[in-house]
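#struct-help
A.M.: can someone run this one for me? Single chain, 677 residues.
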Amino acid sequence: MDTEMIDGQYAVEKILGSGTYGTVYKVFDKKSNRFLALKQIKKEIVGDHKKKEIVDRLFKKEVEALEKCSHPNIIKIYNIDLEKLYFTMDYIEGKNLEEYLEEYTKEKGKISIKKKVEWIKTLANALDHIHSHRIIHRDIKNTNILVKDEENYIDGKLNICQKLYIVDLGIALFQDMKKLTKTASLGSPLYMSPEQQEGKDINCQTDIWGLGIIFYWLLTGRLPFRDIADIKKAELPSIRKYNKFVDKKLESICVKALEKDQSFRYQTMKEMIEDLDAYQKGKPLIHAGSWTKYFHYKAKYAPIAICIFIIALLFVSYYEYHELLIKESQILLEKAREVEGMGKENLNLKLSFLTQAKKIIENPIIGRPQSKLAKYNKIENSIKAHEFFVTGMLLLLESQEKIILMETIENFFVQAANLAQEDEKLSFQIGDFGFCGIEEILTKKMEDLAKSINNNPSKISDAKIKWDTLRSERIKYNQKAIEHFTKKNYDNKYLSMLIYARMGCCYERIGIVFSIETLASVEQKNDRKDMETAFKKSIECFLNALSVCDQLQKEGNNIDPTNIFFNKAFAHEHIAVILHKYNFSLNEVLQHLKAASQTQLECILECAKRKNQTHIDYWNNFKRFHEHLKSFLSNEDENWKKKQLFDSYNFIVSSAEQVLAINPKDLNAKKMLDFWK
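D.P.: on it. Structure tokens below:
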């Protein structure tokens, strides 16, 4: 620009940068009294009559795109002048990623891989936001990422962190602008995706490619390709060749982002974010790292798959090919097994791995050889068993919000149980989360029914049949769980301990159900004998669980001792509660309750020794034990009762103090101490 002022409002300080179509200035805005960045199309470009229409449309699209995008990692836009073709935006006092990294490395040393992964995830989230507005950036590169150091305080200490911004949406286009998507001159050559260079239609995968180039550069210190010809023809150089500290999982994420064939690249930025998130949490990757991309069994990929298979026959025998299929499906099955937790998100993740494994094992290009049938059948049955179980669990979660017949859900668990003969962990889960899970849903329905009757006593006669049905169903599913647990002899002692504890709970719940009266008050049906039998069996199971716990402790195996302590406390607590209901002597009841408290203390001290944060559930157990004590002593001598409760209080306070003496940073121990004091 020739003048020092723009529109009489913006005083030009300096030129910040110049691109193919625009120049960016640092300006001072007299109205807002602050520095801004101002971008304007270059005069020589606007003056070119042949290019003016494209540039004009391009600039307007950039403005519209930026107006719609509001994200902490995207530069905010302010004043827009469509006639004079400029707009203003936040001025960030930072350096582009390339400059920042060079300066940081010289002054402070290398940035950790962990930090670089966090940067890429931040950029991926910002790009995902752009894509949600149907916008493609088209020019993701190091110099279009600004980095600014920001100060904050953590535990009273000054901490410098980096904030990243995506800039220059100057070639961002809506996906439906077919004419402009073929303007191959837009973008930076060494960062452009193969489809972009060839002038083909583009989508969000172009930005995934650009981010992949940045990721590769961050991990290796070099760009993957030397020129455009390399991008089209050369293989992607190994990341681990240039940086041996990059693990295979991380490499596979970057490689998938840089797949030349779009069908193998991440389909959306969300997919890449999911894999980055899984990597950070130490979980199996969801989308990257599978060799099976070369074997798409859909019809449109059949010719490619057949060609690849024929070539592979030159190197791999027919039987080795089938061994590879079995191995790959086993890997995916193992990934499904590794996903912990039974929340909806975790179950869907399990199901995605199982679906991939099922496709592989069911669809070999050439039929299964006779010698491999046993292996195929074994892995196929295992995959189906897990699939039935996960489907049943997802339906069980849905049943909390809408009506689903329990028999339908039960059928999935039964099918899973029939196929899970050799899988001890899955067999345990079918009983614990499956059949017991159904019983928990029925318990909740029974509680809701009781509340509705209390609010409207006139409905008792209408609810009688439903009440008795729920009561019978609860007994039925507890018995089904017990039957399932006792069908199999568990070689794994730890699982045996859990089985005994869960069976103890099942018998305890049956006893509780038998103690619940029917709604017809004239019947007064207590089923005393059945209740006593169930409670006796429950105590027997919990005592067996304690016995196995003691064995595990003596053997000193690799099982986490906190898990053993936790389950011992659990068993002692339940025995105390049952003995109290069964009118045993108070001394025996209190003996088990104190044993529960003492074992729980051992559990939290073990956590503290490892400098781990003690789990809040451990401390909540102390609260619950204290409430049990209040209940057990409700009819006892007041002075003796006060002494027992005071001793319990002192024990909890002392437990928190012992933990803090070992690990002063334990927040949950501090909270517990504050609560009780």
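A.M.: thanks! The radius of gyration is 33 Å.
D.P.: also worth noting: Confidence is low (pLDDT under 50) at residues 173-185, 291-301, 518-525.
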